[in-house]
Amino acid sequence: MTVARWLGWLIPAALVAAGVLYLRRLSYNEQIVIVGVSLLGAAAGVIGCFAILRKRALTGDALAHAALPGLVLAFLITGQRSLLVLLTGAAVSGIAGIAVLAGLRRATRLKEDAALGIVLSVFTGLGTVLLTVVQGTSGGDRSGLSSFIFGKTAGIIYADVVLIAGLAGLTLLVVFIGYKEFKLVAFDAGFAQVQGWPAFALDFLLMLLVVIAVVIGLPAVGVLLIAALLVIPGAAARFWTERLGTMLLLAGAFGATAGVVGTLITIWHIRVPTGPAIILTAAALFLASLLFAPRRGLVVRAWTRASLRSALAPPP
Questions:
Q1: SS3 for the chain, per residue?
Q2: Segment 114-137 mean pLDDT
Q3: 1.20.1630.10, 2.60.40.10, 3.40.50.12160, 1.10.3470.10: which CATH number matches 27-297?
Q4: pTM over 0.85
Q5: Which pLDDT tens digit goes with each residue over 143-191?
Q6: Tens digit of each residue's pLDDT (9 = 90 or more) over 196-231
Q7: What is the pLDDT of residue 128?
Q8: 96-109, pLDDT tens digit by residue?
Q9: In the predicted model, is pLDDT for residue 3 greater than 60?
């Protein structure tokens, strides 16, 4: 098991190292896009771990769809396709989605899955209607907002990458500073509240970090698939370790690797959407973890059971 545990570190490290070596062969614009997407994947993977532990894996999906109306409204109000303007509108709409979700849970008897379904469907419907309105206006077909559905890195410029990388780095810094508090809330929010910790405020801050990860992921992964980037790296990392710190590091490495490899696939085959390429790469990492992770991997568990049956079998 020691060898397998070392493989849990060496595999993502080798993938990241290979990506860095290949990065030197790309053009300047391609390099800055890769850097931004890798930081996005790392931030999404780390934040997704806390969402999984809080049993809110689908919250990112609801918030991604809730961000769509704000993104379109920001374009309608300003007439600008500036990434900062669009992501600001998406963030405001995403926070509104959090408020609606919290209000439904507190003021009604609805279960969380029902509240998530309501927020997801209503905000998606509103965003689709507004997107249709934009496309019907003069020049609306050139707004480029449809690229936020599946993600497209080709239109990202240096200033956009700086914004994405800055927000992703800020997210990782907040997690690093508040690691102990977030860990307590993630595993036992009730105990944290009894001990005098601001459990509600910490939980809300975690949701804000999820909103930031969702918003900055829209240009690369898109509305439909950003939730997968939040969930899959953390779920894959969970197979390799029992410790939260190690899980966060592995999830960040898996997320960064998925972002880099998926974007490289887009560079090699320009007609392949960026979002699906990134998610399929993350799914491949998850499948490898599912099969070969120590203790929890299906192949390792089958080998262990076979060895145990062989050891316990009576001699011929």
A1: CHHHHHHHHHHHHHHHHHHHHHHCCCCHHHHHHHHHHHHHHHHHHHHHHHHHHCCCCCHHHHHHHHHHHHHHHHHHHHCCCCHHHHHHHHHHHHHHHHHHHHHHHHHCCCCHHHHHHHHHHHHHHHHHHHHHHHHHCCCHHHCCCCHHHHCCCCCCCHHHHHHHHHHHHHHHHHHHHCHHHHHHHHHCHHHHHHCCCCHHHHHHHHHHHHHHHHHHHCCCCCCCCHHHHHHHHHHHHHCCCCCHHHHHHHHHHHHHHHHHHHHHHHHHCCCCCHHHHHHHHHHHHHHHHHHHCCCCCHHHHHHHHHHHHHHHCCCC
A2: 80
A3: 1.10.3470.10
A4: no
A5: 567 667 766 666 677 777 888 888 888 888 888 888 888 888 777 767 6
A6: 777 777 877 888 888 888 888 877 777 777 888 888
A7: 81
A8: 887 888 788 777 77
A9: no
User: Residues, the chain, total?
Assistant: 316
Tokens of 145: 């907002």
The tokens of 111 are what? 């279960």
